[in-house]
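It is worth pausing here to work through a concrete case rather than discussing structure prediction in the abstract. The textbook approach is simple: state the sequence, then state the predicted structure, then interpret. We follow exactly that order.
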Amino acid sequence: MWLLPLLAVVIFATSDSRTEVRSVDDARSLDALKSLDYAKVDNGKTGETVGYSELRNIILACEAYARGVSMLPRFHEPVVTRGDTGISVFRQVSPSVVLVVTGNVKDDKVTDMGFGTGVIIDPSGYILTNWHVITGYEAGVIFFKPATGTTPEKNKAYVVTLVAQDEKADLALLKIVKPPAGLPPVQFGDISMIQVAEDIHIIGHPHGELWSYSTGVISQIRDNYDWKYSDGSKHLAKVLQLQTAINPGNSGGPVLDNTSKMLGLVSMSEEGQNLNYAVAIDVIRSFVARSMAARTRGAGVGSQGEKGEFYVGHTNSGLAVTKAVYSDCVAYTTRDQKGLVVAVLVHTASGAILTASEPNAFGGFRDWSYKLPDGGVVVVTSDGLMPELVSAGARE
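Step two, the predicted structure:
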């Protein structure tokens, strides 16, 4: 399920007879809009521009970034002890491996839900990961491995959305909203070429130790293998049984052969038994093919959001304010005399504040600023309705 804090989403007005709202950048006008008088209206007559789903995605992206960015200083180049092959595989494939964060990192502790590994499978921005990494989320952020040095670029977190998922096989396909050019995809291997006892290489983020390398062997190929997670979810797929080190955070990482081709996707381990498993490449091929075909036909998994209950009020200067009441937020939308939305402020139950500026041609906003309770600031840019790039802003 979505883990979303209670929000109060506010679009600023100017003034009414009781309360003065001086500026669209004045966070104190939240109280002013709360104090307006509202009358209930039909849901279909409100003409929402920035809808519930879009606002929720922006909040989730900001929350994921704020939590994930604390992990970035933990990256260091791995010490490879297995010779030139391991070094070659890591150097070739590690740029294709990303850090996926959806917000379930609590108290700086990594869980296998909401924090994991992903692998670029197409230069247009498609990323493969596990279903259990993203379950309950339709938006998050990814970080790329730095091209040089040891510190990932925290000011460039790319927003990803969920394209397709297969709960049974524990697979999910993500898409970067606005991918950079030159993304290096991993190459798929062939299930018929996999041999028991062959060497394998794995890249992932075990326990938050970013872009870690490990090696091992394939112990067996198992058809129709079933497993379940602590949340009770049950899964069934052809898997590769591995003898290697797998830990939370490795989920969604590629299993590679000596030629750097992907043989599987790390899925789970049986703690204390040194039994680790990855979804086999033929299952992955089938899932990706189905997902791409469905996307071409226009199918999607995105949420349309709640309907909510709507109310309308007016300021003394004639601006119309729509209040939408949802199960987890209250949204105030203010329009000028021409009916155009002017700005947005979001106040969360935790004390964070999201504000918007620079309306764009799509009815959304180009710039969003998310102020955390500790004073940290997250900045989001967008040319459409969806957030695209997330970065750290100046602390206030």
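Step three, interpretation. Residues 207 and 249 are 5 Å apart (CA to CA). The two ends are 33 Å apart (CA to CA).
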